[in-house]
Design brief:
The protein has 77 residues and is an all-alpha fold. It has two helices and no strands.
């Protein structure tokens, strides 16, 4: 079993935001660290999905444009 490597991240945030995050982590019965890691992982997953959807949309658009060009060139022959 591989041991997960961990790293520390130090950031400066507004005191009110920190207080809010601490309260929410308590409500969810998590440590502040666990709570923030979950937020970051969720955000990362959403961005990955958005990016892959965006890429898929672009590929679909390119496929449609290529098909249109192929129809035009075939009709000219």
């Amino acid at each position: 079993m591989e041991i997960e490597k961990r790293a520390q991240l130090n950031i400066n945030i507004d005191a009110k935001l920190l207080k809010s995050l601490k309260l929410k982590s308590i409500i969810e019965d998590k440590t502040l660290s666990e709570y923030i890691v979950n937020i970051l992982e969720s955000h990362e997953n959403v961005n990955v999905s958005s990016t892959s959807n965006s890429l898929e949309n672009k590929l679909n658009e390119l496929d449609a444009r290529i098909a249109k060009i192929e129809r035009l060139t075939n009709s000219q022959n």
